[in-house]
Write the structure tokens for this entry.
Amino acid sequence: MTFANPHEQLFYEALRIRRAEERIIEIYPTDRIQSPVHLSIGQEAIAVGVCHPLRIEDPLFGSYRSHAFFLAKGGSMRSMFAELYGKATGGSGGKAGSMHLTAPEVGFMGSSAVVASTIPNAVGAALAAQRRETGQVVVTVFGDGATEEGVYHESLNFAALHQLPVLFLCENNGLAVHSKLSDRQAYGICEHAATYGITTQRCREGWDFVRVNDLVGQAVEAIRRGDGPRFIECRTYRYQEHVGIGCDHDVGYRPRGPLEAWQANDPLLNEPALVEAFDPAIRDEIDDAVQFAESSPWPGPEQLLADVA
Amino acid sequence: MTFANPHEQLFYEALRIRRAEERIIEIYPTDRIQSPVHLSIGQEAIAVGVCHPLRIEDPLFGSYRSHAFFLAKGGSMRSMFAELYGKATGGSGGKAGSMHLTAPEVGFMGSSAVVASTIPNAVGAALAAQRRETGQVVVTVFGDGATEEGVYHESLNFAALHQLPVLFLCENNGLAVHSKLSDRQAYGICEHAATYGITTQRCREGWDFVRVNDLVGQAVEAIRRGDGPRFIECRTYRYQEHVGIGCDHDVGYRPRGPLEAWQANDPLLNEPALVEAFDPAIRDEIDDAVQFAESSPWPGPEQLLADVA
Amino acid sequence: MGVAYKIEEDQAQTTTYREALFRCMRGALADHPETFILGQGVDDHKGTFGSTVGLAEEFGAGRVMDSPLAEESMTGIGIGAALNGLYPIQTHIRADFALLAMNQIVNMAAKYKYMFGGRFEVPMLIRMVIGRSWGQGAQHSQSLQSLFAHVPGLTVIMPATSDSILETYPWIIENHRGPVISLEHRLLYDIAFRGDDARPENSPLSSRLLRRGKDVTIVATSIMVLEAKRAAEHLAETAGIEAEVIDLHCVSHPDRQMILDSVARTGRLIVADTSWQAYGVAAEISRIVCEHDPSILRAPIATLGMAPAPCPTAKTLEDLYYPTLRSLADTAARMVVGEEDHGVTLPEEASMADVYKRFKGPF
Amino acid sequence: MGVAYKIEEDQAQTTTYREALFRCMRGALADHPETFILGQGVDDHKGTFGSTVGLAEEFGAGRVMDSPLAEESMTGIGIGAALNGLYPIQTHIRADFALLAMNQIVNMAAKYKYMFGGRFEVPMLIRMVIGRSWGQGAQHSQSLQSLFAHVPGLTVIMPATSDSILETYPWIIENHRGPVISLEHRLLYDIAFRGDDARPENSPLSSRLLRRGKDVTIVATSIMVLEAKRAAEHLAETAGIEAEVIDLHCVSHPDRQMILDSVARTGRLIVADTSWQAYGVAAEISRIVCEHDPSILRAPIATLGMAPAPCPTAKTLEDLYYPTLRSLADTAARMVVGEEDHGVTLPEEASMADVYKRFKGPF
Ligand SMILES: Cc1ncc(C[n+]2csc(CCOP(=O)(O)OP(=O)(O)O)c2C)c(N)n1
Ligand SMILES: Cc1ncc(C[n+]2csc(CCOP(=O)(O)OP(=O)(O)O)c2C)c(N)n1
Ligand SMILES: [Mg+2]
Ligand SMILES: [Mg+2]
């Protein structure tokens, strides 16, 4: 696939993620995906904007909400669907499910279902990169809620103290499950991170993959130059419920207004020509991946005790 | 004992602490105090300056380095020495030793040998004070090193979020064991704490008990009025080694210069008339406490399994 | 003050585990002004799987507090609140997350009383939910009772039925002045119980003899208690094998005498637990028997628990990972008949497997 | 690459536990460029009780890194560094502090390999020092092996001698690709060992049969191995009682066959551990025996460990809190003679008690 400009390429990547998750929504009621899913619909622009400036060998660590980053970093569609189906051909051989996607072959290192727990892992990978002079930039992606965990403070401090090549990327969707940010945090995320001596930037237009791409591109360049860690907070908006495939603007914890405002800016909803142009290829890829997952074998009993210690 | 002015009173309190710890140093080689001791010599002014403005019922939580705060808060000299001796008459019946002094009768709640671990306990006590409308102000005392622990971040956030009546009091002696602050922290303690929306103040003259007393007095008043949490960082200087009774300016990790500079300001070393006036009464109290500890019984075997669950 | 909630007198009526939890939470808030609930999402519309739903509206945000994502400090705050006159009830929607609070639980809550010579008490209830099934995976499925039960100063319970909850929670909140950790099983939430189990005679913080039988003793925890009862009924009906079933319930303070008496009678012991076996419940029960008199065992004991691995998500592996009604019945039959080829018809997985299957999250 | 350090051939030469640790730390840095040491104070003049002293000067601050006070993230950083090509050696000067890192140890390090289908490895060594004696108190004295050994994915060792360290550490660093937790005993640091114990035949990650005897099997861990050897020698000399002594060493992966063979021969079992007994080592050994064949036990087993309470500081209580050479010898004599009133002269506490007494900190 060739693209006329970066906007189109990033659009394609973002659309690919959205369609993949929409396919998950379609399949889910059949119970063939027996795995709790945390969808990124509405948040895809961040994943593609962040991953585009990265090299394959730049390690990225994610959370349970990682379909978007897995795909944006270059993880294979087949690997993802097979993993969601719990098949032996999944990226983790069916042992991981949606919450623990991985694709080390493209630097997508790991994703954890324990909030904030991969943040220090990313800092450690950055320490190794610095020590081994690999030239890697490490990225840790986490939600606004993750910044409340103690380990976040510890990780910012260590990264800043040793000027490690790590990008802290906060996807701020204003919610942790159903709890509003203002009910959880007394600090401003960027103001707080800046006190560790880390250069921080805020991106309010989290729907704008080109803007995210540019911001991250500059940050990654600075980090690779040896300027130490950087911090970027991207505002974003989660369209679906926290976990699962439904919508939940009717249950009372959040109003519809901001959803509509966000959607009015969402390129994937506002550029039908590009959607039309890209959908067929994307549909083929997803069809193929689902077919692959469906026809793949289950992991055998010998896998139960394999790879424990 | 009556005093001509607050300076004299606080001087007396501080001297009382120093003499008590000097007595520990004297006794230690006899091995009658079988307990790791973290002395506060050089740091006493903070303890007396902090505790003076407090009410008895204001809970204070400390660390393993708590002789000074125990005494300043009103803990009994006898109780402390008996506890150091491991006697049944000690504040914790001999089960606690130096690192876990307590005197709930005067609001000295507890002290923990795990760095930073009483900070959230203080915040919780403040939550109870707020909920139960007790009018208490809770104080948590911790070192500069403790601010590196994740739970510190979590505790600041919660206290600020709920505007709890708690005073965070950081005794910044620039060291954690033998590690310099600049080798451990990328942030400025006050700048960082301020990002939680907590009013912070720094006191560079940590030898000056009157100044500490005034600062804390104002903060405590504000907190009691319902203004929410406050933060005070006091610079201070530890004269002795981290744990144990020795001096350690000769082992290479810190120069003598700052010690001498600090001592030049230390009222206890520079006002011999007051020392002379107060020493006899203090000596009597300490003699009595040591005598009490010496002659007290050991806890009996029935104590081994008492008070477990 | 009397016990806040009693089991319904009407035995025909059933109560789900979730309803029992809800009644206890509501009862605690209504009857004890010093209680408060602190946990992530306790005030949202899902209300901790329904166990706290609507309580924030009824009792106010000060009594039912949403918490930041900060397990260590939340536990520490609970301890501090307990030290200053409140009774905290804390929730972890997965026991796995409580690993972030181990320092406050083990170094502080468990020790505060003893360490200070009995001068403080830390009354509090920490609820932790054990996840299972439907792709929970390695970090949403751990059953950490052994880690807590190893530590003096903690009381650890694993309520297996609605009754257990209704008997224990109000009693603890009213009478017990130390920290209690309760491991609730997510798959029990939807199960309705008739409430006709024997009730413990004294403190509910002990074990329960649920079924008499002469052939084999099954000591079980949490959801394995249900499997044990089903297995016992199946074996009695189809093969005349009578299993005695003990719900261990208070895993930190099991009723040693009850276990020893039972094994002395049956001579055979199966331990069915929800966690890994090394250093787990089966190990502890083995110690109790071995220290007392191993000769009461007429055969080697059999133990069931999770496979010695993190939990995989693929259904095919998950099915092998957990012990089942069928594997339990098979084990008991083999033990009593004394042969691998015991000839006893094994139960279809139907009943409980259906429960597990119906579970589709949310968490 | 061969094993970095071998035990001295000259049997007369002795090596302290501290020296053994130091040689392994130095050897790891010298022979394996990917190793680094990360821990509080590892680069200071005291150098983790002497085990890392001078290494920062020799290998640079990048290889021997002081860490902030931040146990959870330090462990997480170690894991991340391991995932990206380094081999971290981490230190906790008290095992108690590792409770702050439980999430990274249990939820991450133990699971990273399995959870991702074997696509990652987390080779790392986490050293934790067990404190004891002289007023360490409740929070500086815990011996947390059981908490870790319960969790699949972790390998947990308790080196009891200088040999154990010299055999195991270099081997792990060179050959083992998963996380290893080593619990070192603070009171062993000053003890010099002659180095004449039998060496394990294959991997050093197993148990060690240290002494043959026909009358009773003593399975011991850490410092209790020394007490067991002393007790065995005393009993042999004074009463002709021959105790077989097994150093469990790898508590997560004990040599089951060695234990079962021994108990089958002696018929009697004592387990002497450094921690609490509930859900502890004695429980696990009991499970191994009970699942295999409890009839090999001719008597109830006896177990020694810490009293079921947090550790008190008063000397009088601390003396009761820990098992001793004397209580171990007494237990063995009672078991073998079969009577409370066994008539065997018990050892004076002299030797080990002297060691404990000499210990005066610092931490
Ligand atoms: C340590 C821990 N605590 C609680 C949870 C339950 N939980 C799962 S996701 C989540 C919210 C996280 O919010 P945020 O970091 O903002 O990420 P988002 O889901 O919004 O992308 C919570 C509380 C968990 N998985 N881990
Ligand atoms: C959680 C934890 N980590 C490490 C230690 C070991 N330790 C004891 S005191 C101390 C230094 C604390 O420094 P600081 O907070 O500045 O207090 P100070 O001793 O200077 O008063 C350390 C690392 C501990 N007790 N607890
Ligand atoms: Mg969020
Ligand atoms: Mg300090």
